[in-house]
Write a structure and sequence with these properties.
Blueprint: H1 3-6, H2 16-27, H3 34-47, H4 54-67, H5 70-75, H6 93-116, H7 118-132
């Protein structure tokens, strides 16, 4: 896999055992008090007027799986005049493979979490969306 694309990133879990460990860690986070839950819901409502919908959920999943993964490492850095030449490749096959492996592992992990622990999934996705996707295009 592309070392430059994975620099500082850990691949998402792939085995059932790894995913169960991650879920156990998420579940061991302190439970929200009723007041904290209300505050969290208010923050989500403020970030997503009209309610958190499937497009907001999709934005969060894409941010996790693609935007904030190896692609971010490849995107970092200074611009180059070479980028103006459409005949030149910007990514190696190894870079693309790394992006796709990271993305599919992340989506698989999130779908597993959605099925195994819907309450953890909902909290996680909404918090992620509120943090990273407030300015993304939403359903009109």
């Amino acid at each position: 896999m592309s070392k430059r694309a994975l620099d500082g990133l850990k691949l998402p879990p792939t085995t059932r055992r790894e995913m169960e460990r991650m879920l156990r860690d998420l579940r061991h986070e302190p439970e929200l008090t009723p007041e904290q839950r209300v505050a969290f819901d208010q923050q989500v409502e403020q970030a997503f007027p009209g309610g958190f919908d499937r497009r907001d959920e999709a934005n969060a999943l894409v941010a996790m799986a693609v935007r904030n993964g190896p692609l971010e490492n490849l995107h970092a850095g200074r611009s180059s005049p070479l980028l103006d030449d459409d005949t030149l490749s910007r990514l190696t096959d190894d870079d693309v493979r790394t992006i796709m492996v990271f993305a599919t592992r992340t989506v698989a992990m999130m779908l597993w979490m959605r099925d195994e622990a819907p309450e953890v999934y909902q909290r996680y996705v909404r918090a992620y969306a509120a943090r990273y996707c407030r300015s993304w295009e939403r359903t009109s």
